Amino acid sequence: MYPFSYTRASDLRTALRAGADGGRYVAGGTTLVDLMRETVERPGTLVDISGLPLREVTATKGGGLRIGALMRMAEIAAHPTVRALYPVISQALELSASAQLRNMATIGGNVMQRPRCTYFRDVTAACNRREPGTGCGAREGFNRTHAILGTSEQCVATHPSDVAVAFAALEATVHLLGPAGERTVAFADFLLRPGSTPQREQDLRPGELITAVEIPAQPRPLRSGYLKVRDRQSYEFALTSAAVALHVRAGVIRSAKVAAGGVGTVPWKLSAVEQRLIGARPSEALWAQAAEVAAEGAHPLAHNGFKVELLKRTVERQLRVVGGTR
């Protein structure tokens, strides 16, 4: 680990001043400190924001939800309002990491996770995210766990967050605060595909920090859930996952929100699946037909072609679990 300075922010103004001067924000530290030990990250200054007043869950008008960025993953998963309104969020969090990490990691930090690509974490390997212009070791290397959607010549790493998949499905908004003031960004625009600039992973301006993630009000009744498929039952990242939320009234699907994880360079909104569902009546045939388009646009690599069929099956299974048949 390289030398660094440390400061603890007592209020938002102090935090923003330190961030504007080049400091890196840290709260739970479950990702950043790990990367610092591996010398992947080498910040000169850490700004501890764990004491800032960003730790509450608030129900908004119409049944939406605002989650403070410093809420711990375990706190959100167990929160009665979250469990009642959006079980897909609770389930995604409960299937993430270990109990110890969930007790430490914050929701803002979870969304800001760096890739879990082994080439990114190996400082001797070529990685355009870590060192732009050096190449992507994963493209020609072992890429079984890598992305099939949203990739570029520069990077094929997946985004590792489970709850980010639920946020993408529910069309959340990210609230930001920086030296220039407050702003909001649609979750779909906050996490960036690699394109030609894989080192830029979020739509963040210098010195900005996440203050909250807001879920817009959804039509009721709403049934939702999260399914994660992985190599082992616990402490493992998704090979594929599916977040589904359905509003069914009078036997017809009026609203459908579906996103996938483990297959995209960002949490992948499955708009084509949603379009197949809206206006249709729940049935076994419908789930299969909708899931068939889940992998549209996929570009498998040498070792992860199995993800195309696995994604379809994962989406179909979760549609059946959430939607049932009538």
From TrEMBL:
Looking up Pfam families in the UniProt record yields: CO_deh_flav_C, FAD_binding_5
> Sorted alphabetically, which SUPFAM superfamilies does this protein's record hold?
CO dehydrogenase flavoprotein C-terminal domain-like (SSF55447), FAD-binding/transporter-associated domain-like (SSF56176)
Tell me the keywords, alphabetical order: Oxidoreductase
Gene3D superfamilies in UniProt: 3.30.465.10, CO dehydrogenase flavoprotein, C-terminal domain, Uridine Diphospho-n-acetylenolpyruvylglucosamine Reductase, domain 2
Which GO molecular function annotations are given, in alphabetical order?
FAD binding; oxidoreductase activity
| Source organism, top-level taxon | Bacteria
Database matches in InterPro entries: CO_DH_flav_C, CO_DH_flav_C_dom_sf, Diverse_Substr_Oxidored, FAD-bd_PCMH, FAD-bd_PCMH-like_sf, FAD-bd_PCMH_sub1, FAD-bd_PCMH_sub2, Mopterin_DH_FAD-bd
Q: Which PANTHER family match?
A: OXIDOREDUCTASE, XANTHINE DEHYDROGENASE SUBUNIT C-RELATED
Record protein name field: FAD-binding molybdopterin dehydrogenase
Which source organism does the UniProt entry give? Lentzea aerocolonigenes
